[in-house]
Design brief:
The structure holds two protein chains of two kinds. Helix content of chain A is about 40%, strand content about 25%. By secondary structure, chain A is of the alpha/beta class. In chain A, strand 1 (about 5-15) and strand 2 form a beta hairpin. In chain A, helix 4 packs across helix 5 and helix 4 (about 105-115) runs parallel beside helix 6 (about 150-165). Chain A starts with a strand and ends in a 5-residue tail after the last helix. Chain B is about 35% helix and about 25% strand. Chain B has helices at about 45-55, 75-85, 105-115, 120-130, 150-160, 180-195, 205-210, and strands at about 1-15, 20-30, 35-40, 60-65, 70, 90, 165-170, 195-200, 215. Chain B has a five-stranded parallel beta sheet with strand order 6-7-8-3-9, with helices on both faces. In chain B, strands 2-1-4-5 form a four-stranded antiparallel beta sheet, covered by helices on one side. In chain B, a hairpin with a 2-residue loop joins strand 4 (about 60-65) and strand 5 (about 70). In chain B, helix 3 (about 105-115) crosses helix 4, helix 3 (about 105-115) runs parallel beside helix 5 and helix 4 packs across helix 5 (about 150-160). The longest helix of chain B is centred in the C-terminal third of the chain and has 16 residues, at about 180-195. The chains are: A alpha/beta, B alpha/beta. The interface of A and B includes residues 232 and 239 of A.
Chain lengths: ~260, ~230
């Protein structure tokens, strides 16, 4: 089986400081990988390098495209990368406002991505938008409301609907449950897990919440100061951490 | 089906003066298809540790852990994930689920994960839940609010949903009443009959004598004691 994503020696410096360095891994179709670490550990830098939002100083991000097979997305042309970002890739931002158009209706937010890949039939776009609102548990009657009228949790779910409507194969998520209260988090986790299962998505999830990765991620990478200090099966890393920092991280979690 | 060759395990506690605690040494065992082996030994002797080494959530320090031909001690994460999906089942003592997912889905999930038809998976889940006396009115609810015994039975139903060729059972009859205990024991008997290799921890001596073919005392693998 070909990996969906092959990351080889990704490195990003901010001047003399290390953003992230020496990151390599393979992600296979249907796998969910978590990246954890304290703030400033380089996890968001890494995610942005992988998703093409930041240009890495060195390394390759090879994606198995539908048409041409494995292609290095770092060296591909900007239009090609943008196309990938609208079709096979999706990016769920920590703050829904960064991933939504706040002045456009909920239906418009979902429909925009469909139109970007060539859908033109207004009625069909609207129907699919309402279908997706239902899937992320937003009342279809709110299709014409702007996201500004939504709660934080609803905005986050709308962002997820907007991202998944075009059937991407790889989803990048930056703290998708950050800043949400726990009951909303639980709904979102349940939703994400169901979507991953039904659509066969692969996902890379950056978070600092170990409970979230335990439930969602098959594999886990632990970052500190720009380096990956430990990687492996999620339950192995959490149950039998080998690195001093991971041990500290795991033992610092409050038991509920 | 399950074979351990000279496996050792130690924990290094970096944040507590880098203490190295050896917990297992020279562990070797072999479980054939259709056989059920009980791990025995006092609390803290390393029964659960040994089980977790087989399941792959503890890293073995040395030696081979072969399950269905795959060396869990050396395998890539995705190989272990595939092994757990297809071959190796684990009934732990605690149910860990995504909140809000209905019980029926929780139980059917291992079947859905291997691409089983949805209706077939749900039917099988329903049959198992009925057999384990979980009232049907609870099936659409999340098991997070269930009593300890009910959660344990949901966990068992989930563990037995797919016919794994190898299974690990961590006290499957704990906190169960007599009738449910009998059901679980017959599930184990059936799994053996279809050729599953089983490693179990049973504090319940009656249960152990009924389903287990032999016993392995993990104290034999405890470093220092054997020496």
């Amino acid at each position: 089986m070909t990996p969906l994503l092959q990351v080889k020696g990704i490195q990003k410096h901010y001047g003399a400081r290390i953003g992230c360095t020496g990151v390599s891994f393979d992600l296979y179709p249907g796998e969910v990988m978590g990246i954890v670490g304290e703030s400033g550990s380089g996890k968001s830098t890494l995610l942005n390098c992988l998703a093409g939002h930041l240009e890495p100083d060195a390394g390759q991000v090879v994606f198995d495209t539908r048409t041409d097979g494995p292609v290095d997305t770092v060296t591909m042309s900007e239009p090609e990368r943008r196309m990938l970002g609208r079709t096979d890739w999706a990016f769920v931002h920590q703050h829904a406002r960064d991933g939504l158009r706040m002045s456009v209706s909920a239906g418009g937010n979902i429909g925009e991505r469909l139109m970007a890949v060539g859908d033109r039939h207004y009625g069909q776009i609207r129907d699919r938008a309402i279908d997706w609102l239902g899937r992320v548990e937003i009342d279809g009657a709110r299709v014409d409301d702007r996201p500004t009228a939504f709660s934080g949790g609803m905005q986050q779910r709308l962002q997820i609907a907007r991202n998944l409507v075009t059937g991407p194969r790889l989803v990048f998520m930056d703290e998708p449950t950050g800043g949400l209260d726990v009951s909303v988090q639980a709904r979102l986790l349940d939703l994400l897990r169901g979507l991953v299962r039904e659509m066969g998505l692969s996902a890379i999830i950056v978070t600092h919440d170990l409970a979230v990765v335990r439930l969602l991620a098959d594999r886990l990478m632990v970052m500190k100061d720009g380096y990956v200090v430990e990687a492996g099966l999620t339950d192995q890393v959490l149950d039998d951490p080998q690195h001093a920092y991971t041990q500290l991280l795991v033992s610092s979690v409050l038991q509920v | 089906m399950i074979e351990l060759k000279d496996v050792s395990k130690s924990f290094t506690l970096h944040n507590q003066g880098s203490a190295v605690i050896p917990v297992m040494e020279g562990a070797s065992l072999k479980v054939a298809p259709g056989e059920c082996v009980a791990l025995t030994g006092a609390s803290g002797a390393g029964k659960s540790t040994l089980m977790r080494v087989i399941y792959g959530n503890y890293l073995a320090a040395s030696g081979q852990v072969l399950v269905g031909g795959l060396d869990v001690a050396q395998a890539e994460p995705r190989e272990i994930l595939a092994l757990r999906r297809e071959t190796l089942g684990y009934v732990s003592q605690f149910l860990r689920v995504v909140p809000r997912v209905p019980t029926l889905e929780v139980v059917a999930e291992p079947l859905l994960a291997i691409g089983c038809d949805r209706q077939v998976a749900l039917d099988k889940a329903a049959a198992l839940l009925a057999r384990l006396n979980i009232p049907e009115r609870l099936w659409s609810l999340s098991p997070t609010t269930f009593s300890g015994g009910e959660q344990q039975r949901v966990n068992i139903a989930r563990g037995f949903a797919h016919d794994y060729p190898a299974m690990l059972l961590d006290e499957p009859t704990a906190s169960l009443d007599a009738q449910n205990r009998e059901t679980v024991l017959s599930l184990i008997e059936e799994a053996k009959a279809r050729g599953a290799a089983i490693v179990g921890i049973f504090h319940d001596i009656g249960a152990r004598n009924q389903v287990c073919d032999r016993e392995i005392n993990v104290s034999d693998f405890t470093p220092g004691v054997a020496a």
